[in-house]
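Example record used in the benchmark description.
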Amino acid sequence: LSVIGGGLWWAFDRRYRPPKPLDVGSLDQALQMDSTMPLSFDDTDVVIAIICTFRRDRLSVYGHDRETTPFLDKLGAHGVVMDMHFSQAPWTRPSVGSIVTGRWPRALQVDLPGEGNPLEMVMGEEHTLLAEVFAERGYHTVGAIANPNALRRFGFAQGFSNYREPERAWAEGGTYLYDANLVEHVIDYADGLDDDERLYARLLMITTHTPRDVTDDDIAQFADGQPARLAEYDAAAYNLDLYLAELYTALKARRPNLLFVVAADHGEGLFFPRHHGPGHGNFLYQTALRVPWIVQHPSLPAGRRVDGFTMNIDVHPTVLGLLGAAAAHRVDGRDQSAVIRGETDNTGHERVFAETFFRDVDKATLFERDYHLVKDYGSGSVRQFRFKDWRASRAMKTSPRRVEQEQALDAWRTEQSALVTAPGQTAPLDENTRSQLEVMGYLE
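Model output (structure tokens):
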């Protein structure tokens, strides 16, 4: 492999398997709609694929001019695409936590200001993960992750009867699981179930995260007329899309009554624009926070695109709402199932929020339809941009909304602080876990 070294063995002693070519015939068959299929806990299998470092504007399903996501293009045409969806944190652990619990990251205490190493923070057992809800409903629950930020030791395996995670490191330091293995593991697990048994699967996939498993030939397909770093990312997005297609077609052939959800923890700077940086964690621009959310089931509208603000904290209550239940535990997000079904266009969010304390930064942001405000609570600097200026290329010098937005952001931060009522839990990093995090760029 051109990026990470072709001779390296991965965690299960199997070499990298490139994605299978898109089987258009099988995919079209899987996407054939039967709107009479019931969407309920008694009848529906559920898969949530969380993609790590999935930058929205590099995906053709969201308008990128290169065909990077042929599967998601088709899935979106047969499902519901959220166009104004935002993450609550620009790095994995707090963001994935918010997806699977419906809580603000601060409530989970996995990223806090001035609280030591955030990479040691654990999501406590008092929080209810989707897997726990499905397990209580009699589902067989399988998790498969490739990003070590969601290891069992950090609290992300609650509710799972089977949880596949990186287990050991290379001699050079670091563990790398390929998304091909995650897909195969979930398919194999599903094959072991009887037809009348229900499946809940959650994957955390990393093909688009550095180090990106793409070849020179992969990159060459997207190299025309753009910098190498963007061609590499587009190639990774394309490969990731093929893994998703493999997962979807295989499971639909076995379990046609499938609710399939694609979400993302955050985006990526890619030095595009330059001041957005190369990666993620430190910045709160749209490239890092505006992310995909796509939902598909045969009974849901085909080709619906939702233009209202939604957030990752909405995913948890929405999945439950689509299956006919309300959360019996505290969530901070809103159930968007009525919006997804097309019964209303009102998502209930006039603004969205996010914050980060990654590597000792202390920043928060507020997005509204007209303006986007970013405040650095460490330095006290405040910058405001027009929302349509997704590059954040020119800060506003004056705005009638700036004071109001800063007050709203400060009030939200006060509410977030009130969510922390007791010391959080930590799990000191052993050498194995440290090396896993190091190879993915989480340690300096």
